[in-house]
Task: inverse folding
C-alpha cells in the first residue's frame, strides 16, 4: 500500500521557521520525484517545490525561492521542506505527493497537481502576523 505521511506543521509567527517531513512507503522511492503542494482556503492547490529522488535536482515556485529548501534522505524514504522567513500568506494545508515523471517533465509548466500519482493527507501550517 502506497503511503505518504506528512508531519511538522503547526502555528508559527511571521518570520519563523518550520520543517515539514514526508515519509514515503509502498513504492520504489528512488524512481519518483516528490513534491510539496499547498492549498489555502478558497484557493487552488499550488505546487511549491519538488525534488528528484533519482538525481537530487530540485524545483521551487517563485513565491518560495530563497526561503524554502527541499531535501531528500533516500535511506529513510523521506523528503523534507525547510521553511524559513515564513509569511502569513504561507498559511495553508501542505501536501506531499509523488510522481514517476522525471522532474524536468513534471515541472515543465510549473509544478502541477495533475502530474502527481500519489498524495498524502496534508499537514496544516499557520503563520500568524
Result:
Amino acid at each position: 500500500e502506497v503511503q505518504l505521511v506528512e508531519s511538522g506543521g503547526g502555528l508559527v509567527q511571521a518570520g519563523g521557521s518550520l520543517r515539514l517531513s514526508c515519509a514515503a512507503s509502498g513504492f520504489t522511492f528512488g524512481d519518483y520525484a516528490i513534491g510539496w503542494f499547498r492549498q489555502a482556503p478558497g484557493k487552488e492547490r499550488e505546487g511549491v517545490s519538488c525534488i528528484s529522488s533519482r538525481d537530487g535536482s530540485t524545483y521551487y515556485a517563485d513565491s518560495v525561492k530563497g526561503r524554502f529548501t527541499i531535501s531528500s534522505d533516500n535511506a529513510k524514504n523521506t523528503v523534507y521542506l525547510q521553511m524559513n522567513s515564513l509569511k502569513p500568506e504561507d498559511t495553508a494545508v501542505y501536501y506531499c505527493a509523488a510522481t514517476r515523471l522525471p522532474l524536468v517533465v513534471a515541472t515543465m509548466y510549473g509544478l502541477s497537481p495533475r502530474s502527481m500519482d500519489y498524495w498524502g493527507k496534508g499537514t496544516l501550517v499557520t503563520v500568524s502576523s
Observations:
- Residues 102 and 108 are 10 Å apart (CA to CA).
- The two ends are 40 Å apart (CA to CA).
- The first strand starts at residue 3 and ends at 7.
